[in-house]
Prior knowledge:
The structure holds 2 protein chains of 2 kinds. Chain A is α+β, with helices and mostly antiparallel strands. Chain A contains 12 helices and 18 strands. The radius of gyration of chain A is 24 Å and the shape is globular. Chain A starts with 5 loop residues before the first strand and ends with a strand. Chain B has helices spanning 3-6, 30-36, 39-45, 90-93, and strands at residues 7-14, 17-24, 53-59, 64-70. Chain B has a 4-stranded antiparallel β-sheet. The radius of gyration of chain B is 13 Å and the shape is elongated. At the A-B interface, α9, β15, β16 and β17 of A face β1, β2, β4 and α4 of B.
Amino acid sequence: xxxxxxxxxxxxxxxxxxxxxxxxxxxxxxxxxxxxxxxxxxxxxxxxxxxxxxxxxxxxxxxxxxxxxxxxxxxxxxxxxxxxxxxxxxxxxxxxxxxxxxxxxxxxxxxxxxxxxxxxxxxxxxxxxxxxxxxxxxxxxxxxxxxxxxxxxxxxxxxxxxxxxxxxxxxxxxxxxxxxxxxxxxxxxxxxxxxxxxxxxxxxxxxxxxxxxxxxxxxxxxxxxxxxxxxxxxxxxxxxxxxxxxxxxxxxxxxxxxxxxxxxxxxxxxxxxxxxxxxxxxxxxxxxxxxxxxxxxxxxxxxxxxxxxxxxxxxxxxxxxxxxxxxxxxxxxxxxxxxxxxxxxxxxxxxxxxxxxxxxxxxxxxxxxxxxxxxxxxxxxxxxxxxxxxxxxxxxxxxxxxxxxxxxxxxxxxxxxxxxxxxxxxxxxxxxxxxxxxxxxxxxx
Amino acid sequence: xxxxxxxxxxxxxxxxxxxxxxxxxxxxxxxxxxxxxxxxxxxxxxxxxxxxxxxxxxxxxxxxxxxxxxxxxxxxxxxxxxxxxxxxxxxxxxxxxxxxxxxxx
Lengths: 445, 105
């Protein structure tokens, strides 16, 4: 192994609403080559499509511009290139908005790449695809609002090869946000499944940002995380053989431990021998993790097999409304009074014709999330009624009946909240990879 | 002894599937996990959970088990009416799973 270069790649966000301060810290002190913002949850893109329909220049993550405002000047000064999927339903609109922001910030000679082609709504409406998470095909879904294929690392690497300082995508596999820069930096072939498999695992470990540095880890009395309030985000020092060391900026909060890395390695993984991505089927079984120093975990091993012939497609569709109401009971006998309240609301909803075939009646503090059946009667309990309905008006009646418990229900209920929300649901299908044609558009400042 | 004494857990979700990793603090305890933390015992502990099928993967290299519980999330996060639609609390509910035959497996 001669002349192994090291690329430093950081995780600046693990979800759309993530904190910005750790990303600023990473770009200022992390000596990064690349900073990645992962900002696209499963149904975000469907909601963004709805926004774009009412405003053609919208449809990308509204927090993108705030992130860029905080990070872009430093990133430009230090030559840190940014990759994000915050383009959501409108990567080109996002690139143009970032270009406008860059001008406003007085930055110049900037190239912003938009990755397009994940939107396969036309293909899906023309040819029904079988669903993979339930019976039926996409033709069975009424009111489809979006269909986006999970693209791979290729177009991201291509954008960087064209000199992009910022690459903005819509739907891509989360690990591809990291694999793309590594492929570009090391000149790897996307046809090398063992390299791309390992790089995908590196990306998978980084994609949730703070979850690798002690976020979602602390457990009072069992697992301690120092400085959780100042949680720093992780970066990987990656070598050209796709081995890596995961670490974080010195002085940032949290810790980067072997235990947290193991948790993140398996996070949202089903079969560890077959982690499906657009570029590779990664194999996690042979991953080796080793804590070589405090806040430094070395990664090696892992592998992969040839890329799948299909890409996963997320299909967003309108799925009615959810009406919800909650009310609290406290003191001795709180539980039986809450149970009575639930009974009363159930009966009243049936009487006024709200269909209850898709409904939940929860006793929060007893059985709302606990599945062990081991709860003790508490001194306070919150009753929750939640019903899916076809119309907003029916959904409104759900909360109204819970509110009516004030004067029409058991003794001592308080603190009613009620809501109605439209449901954008998501189904998944597979599309032949060759039916999808990603492309890169460069916006220059 | 309870599971939380020797292992830490993290819960993830994919559609209507809940995924729970069980990781030994000390890899020497991996065999104990394999022996005691079976699919049947996990499902018995989470007695109120309904699943279509459940599978356990073993990862000796990192001393971990990975449970994949299909159909556990009431239709999945985008359709579920559940308060914890992601099922994120499920792994934590396994911390007091008794080990050492204490529940007469």
